[in-house]
Amino acid sequence: MNPIQVGLLGAGTVGSGTLKVLQRNQEEIRRRAGRGIAITMVADLDTARARAVAGPGVEVVADARAVIANPAIDIVVELIGGYGIARSLVLEAIAAGKHVVTANKALLAVHGTEIFAAASARGVVVAFEAAVAGGIPIIKALREGLTANRIEGVAGIVNGTTNFNLSEMRDNGLDFSVVLQEAQRLGYAEADPTFDIEGIDAGHKTTLMSAIAFGIPVQFDKAHVEGITGLQATDIRYAEQLGYRIKLLGIARRQSSGIELRVHPTLIPAKRLIANVEGAMNAVLVQGDAVGTTLYYGKGAGSEPTASAVIADLVDIARLHTADPAHRVPHLAFQPGEIADTPILPIADVVTAFYLRLSVADQSGVLAAITSILASHDISIDAMLQRQSSQGQTQTELVILTHNTVEGRMRQALATVQALPTVLAPIVSIRKEELS
Q1: Are 368 and 248 part of one and the same domain?
Q2: What are the distances in angstroms from CA 350 to CA 98, 228, 376, 419, 421?
Q3: Per the confidence metrics, is the pTM higher than 0.90?
Q4: What is the reported pLDDT for 31?
Q5: What residues are labeled active site?
Q6: Of 242, 277, 299, which residue is a domain's last?
Q7: For position 402, which CATH number holds?
Q8: What CATH number has the domain bearing residue 252?
């Protein structure tokens, strides 16, 4: 059988890794796929770079549409990124009857509903294992390996840049701005790290996982997203003293009234495996009713780890290239007609616990006033730390861990506490998840 022919759009970090791994392991891949897989055409504006990584026998062009127009190309791999030209090229490839493989989580999180509908109508596949958690096969696990389960929740560390920053802050007691500069120097953070540090990248990935886990539309616009820019080394230190670590966590959880979809810094008990994921590594915890808790760990980015996921998608498509489209694995795990319009819960309706840090006047009655306000909003305290004041100091710090409460109720209580004249600075609040 002739090799399936692939056109590659973008020969950057992941594109070059895909070429290298496919060439290096071509015989092993052929044995698994049942036929060869060959990248025969590459499009990149930097044609010199593309020729250097593509090697002999591969046609290199500057125009991506020339790849899509080539009737010999069976699969288009989109590794350009972003929302703009990538969306047009993917939809054009689908219209031309090409299968698509992409690592573009931003594109799918925002335009996935449109793209998957177009692919289903045309009878082609859009595969995106590389879009979430790099080399970790979490999409396949959710979509296929856990098919028998009613998925109750997903919680993941899915952005290596922020996890590296948080690990450095904890290990070295450094503030965020200092650690970010080091991450940029080492290449873990982009020159413009906004998508990473503001939680947007993790939000894109969590949105995709939620759609597959619960059979709902892709709807990033309804996700609650917070980053790590406001975190201070002080809070990481206090969390450690209380037996917790702070991670940027993407959470998608099923509730009777809807789906939680949120990304934010989160206290996790230090004894949990996911709390011990350090550096630029990723991990995703999945809770299913039959299998219980499973954890998927590995490199969430990088040239060859992400290429591993891209090639896995190519192998899947090669295996089912001639299969009846109606019998393929659905893009979002559930059959297109079975996607449910389950509401995404507003963050004010989410139930979770909280870490609170308050700078207060060092005088009698302060703690009693704060706990009284919390109690009046039906918020109970789980644990508390109070820093010992030095002689002559007029203020001190209180750290409070609460039991679970409705977030809207907590916001009301904190507004009342903040208004006390004895509360001397903005209250720091961070959500806490036991993940038990």
Answers
A1: no
A2: 42, 20, 19, 24, 30
A3: yes
A4: 93
A5: 205
A6: 299
A7: 3.30.70.260
A8: 3.30.360.10
Range of the domain at 237: 138-299
Q: What is the per-residue pLDDT for 390?
A: 62
Beta carbons within 10 angstroms of residue 278's beta carbon: 16
Contact by Cβ (8 Å): 233, 356 = no
d(CA 300, CA 428): 30
- Counting the structural domains of the chain, the total is 3
For residue 407, give the nearest of 255, 288, 274, 286 by alpha carbon.
255
CA 372, CA 436: separation in Å to the nearest integer?
29
Instruction: Report pLDDT for 248.
Output: 98
Classify residue 324 by burial, with Cβ atoms within 10 Å: 0-12, 13-18, 19+.
exposed
Q: List, for residues 345-386, the tens digit of each pLDDT value.
A: 999 999 999 999 999 999 999 999 999 999 999 999 999 998
pLDDT number for residue 2 = 87
Write out the two tokens for 165. Answer: 């920053």
Q: What is the mean pLDDT of residues 174-184?
A: 89
Task: Spell out the SS3 assignment of the chain.
Answer: CCCEEEEEECCCHHHHHHHHHHHHCHHHHHHHHCCCEEEEEEECCCHHHHHHHHCCCCEEECCHHHHHHCCCCCEEEECCCCCCHHHHHHHHHHHCCCEEEECCHHHHHHHHHHHHHHHHHHCCCEECHHHCCCCCCHHHHHHHHCCCCCEEEEEEECCHHHHHHHHHHHHHCCCHHHHHHHHHHHCCCCCCCHHHHCCHHHHHHHHHHHHHHHCCCCCHHHCEECCCCCCCHHHHHHHHHCCEEEEEEEEEEEECCEEEEEEEEEEEECCCHHHHCCCCEEEEEEEECCCEEEEEEEECCCHHHHHHHHHHHHHHHHHHCCCCHHHCCCCCCCCHHHCCCCCECCHHHCEEEEEEEEEEECCCCHHHHHHHHHHHCCCCEEEEEECCCCCCCCEEEEEEEECCEEHHHHHHHHHHHHCCCCECCCCEEEEECCCC
Identify the pLDDT of residue 380: 98
Q: Which residue carries 């954890």 as its tokens? A: 295
Q: What is the pLDDT of residues 87-106, one digit of tens each?
A: 999 999 999 999 999 999 99
pLDDT tens figures, 135-176 = 999 999 999 999 999 999 999 999 999 999 999 999 999 889
Q: pLDDT tens, 208-252?
A: 999 999 999 999 999 999 999 999 999 999 999 999 999 999 999
